[in-house]
Design goal:
By secondary structure, the chain is an alpha/beta fold. The protein has twelve helices and 14 strands. About 45% of the residues are buried. It comes from Enterococcus phoeniculicola ATCC BAA-412.
Length: about 325
Amino acid sequence: MKMKTYRIRKPKIVVVGGGTGLPVILKSLRNQGADITAVVTVADDGGSSGEIRDTIDMAPPGDMRNVLVALSDMPQLYEDIFQYRFDAEDSFLANHAIGNLIIAAVSEMRGSTYDAIQLLSKMMHVDGHIYPSSEQPLVLHAVFKDGTSAVGESKIAIDRKTIDHVFVRNVEGDDTPTAARKVVASIMDADMVVLGPGSLFTSILPNLVIPEIGEALVSTKAEVVYICNIMTQKGETEHFTDADHVRVLNNHLKNQFIDTVLVNTEKVPDDYMDPEIYDEYLVQVKHDFNGLREEGCRVVSTDFLELRDGGVFHDGTKVVEELFRIVFGAKV
C-alpha cells in the first residue's frame, strides 16, 4: 500500500498553454496536490469554439472547457454530459460540445467569459484557478520566412510554410492585447511556470506574445519549464529539433527565459500513429543537446512517452513526478 507524501506546503505551479496536452498535465498535477493555476489560450478560431466566438462576443470556450474538466472532481456522468459533442448531422448544433454552449451561456449572463469561468469553477468544484490569458478573444497572426503572412490560428498550417514569428491582436480593433486579471500576479508569485505540452505556434506562443505575460515570464523568479513536444507538427514545426522549439520560444521573448526543458527520449514505434486520426503529426522530434545547451537551459531527458488509442502522448504521471523533483529541488 502506497503512503501519501505530505509536504509543508503545496508548490504553486502555473501551467500555460492550450490544446489536448494541457489537461493531461493538469489532471496529474491535481492528483499530486499542487496549487494549480491554468492560463489558457484564447486565440482558437476553429471548430465549435470558432463558430461560437464568431456568433457571440466571447473568448473561444473549447480549451477552457477541457481545463475545467481536468481540474474538476465532478462525477464521470456529469463530465460525460459536459463533454458530449452533437453529431455532425444535427443541423445547427452539429459538432458543438455541450460544455462550450454552457460556457457561452454563462458568459452572456455575466457579460464576461472570465467571470463565467470563475463561476463554473465553483459549480464544478475545480481544484485550482483557471484564467483565460486575455479577457478579449484574440486573433493570431503568423509571419512566414518568405515575408507572407496568415491570419487566424486555423489558417496558419494550411500552406505548410516556415514560420518566422507570430503575434496576437484583439478581435475588435488592432489594439495590443492585455493579460487577464490575476495572470501576471500568478506568474510572479509562482514557484514554477510550465509551458506545454502543446502546439508551439498556436497553443503556447499566443499566450507568451501578450506583452504583459512575456515580461512576467522573463522577470519571474519561478523556475520556467518547457515540456517539449514528442512529434513534429505539419505546417508548424516540420523538421524541428528539440533545440529549435526552445530557440523559437526564447527568440519571441528576446531572452533566454527557459530554465529547464523536459525531453522525451523513448522511441515511438514505427508506423504506430493512426494517420486517419492524428494526421497533423509527422515524425518524432530529433534531439540536439548541444543546441539546447546553447539556449542556456537545463535538460531533463528520459522516457515521458505514453502510447494509447493509436496516438502519441506525454505520460502525465511521469512528467509531473519530474516537475515535483525540479520544483522542490529548486527551492531547497
